[in-house]
Design brief:
The protein is built from 6 helices and 3 strands. The radius of gyration is 18 Å and the shape is globular. Helix 2 crosses helix 4. It has a single domain, classed as Winged helix-like DNA-binding domain superfamily/Winged helix DNA-binding domain (Arc Repressor Mutant, subunit A, Orthogonal Bundle), CATH 1.10.10.10. 67% of the residues lie in helices and 9% in strands. The model has no long low-confidence stretch (mean pLDDT 91). The chain has 140 residues and is mainly α. The chain has a 3-stranded antiparallel beta sheet with strand order 1-3-2. The longest helix is centred in the C-terminal third of the chain and has 23 residues.
Amino acid sequence: MAVRLRMAVARLFRRIERTRAGAALTPSETTVLSAVVRQGPLRLSDLARAEGMNPTMLSRIIRDLEEAGLVLRRADLVDRRAALAEATPAGRRLHDRIRSERSDALSAAIELLSPDENLALGAGLPVLEALAERLKGECP
């Protein structure tokens, strides 16, 4: 069951991951932008740890997002040696469009389910949400 669930979740994610709005971004850039929008401003070291990224790679991603006008990098006022990443208004708008396109794609697919499949999916969501909560912080 674990293997089937992992494969199904991975397939779903891959099929909705790419969007027209985010076509210019790599998957890693999309992930970092999303984290900065949801949790920012974030210290780069905290962001690297939370996303399981090499700090050097994260620094390059932040630079690319900064050059695209999606993220600002600034000094941490508490610790001047540390840098913070913060989403720009353009970064927030892009993040919202990406999320919207992903939700729209998933909604369109759900609409094609039979009534019984739709009920089964709805009944299973609380279990999936609880499972995700239990796994929080356990996976690398």
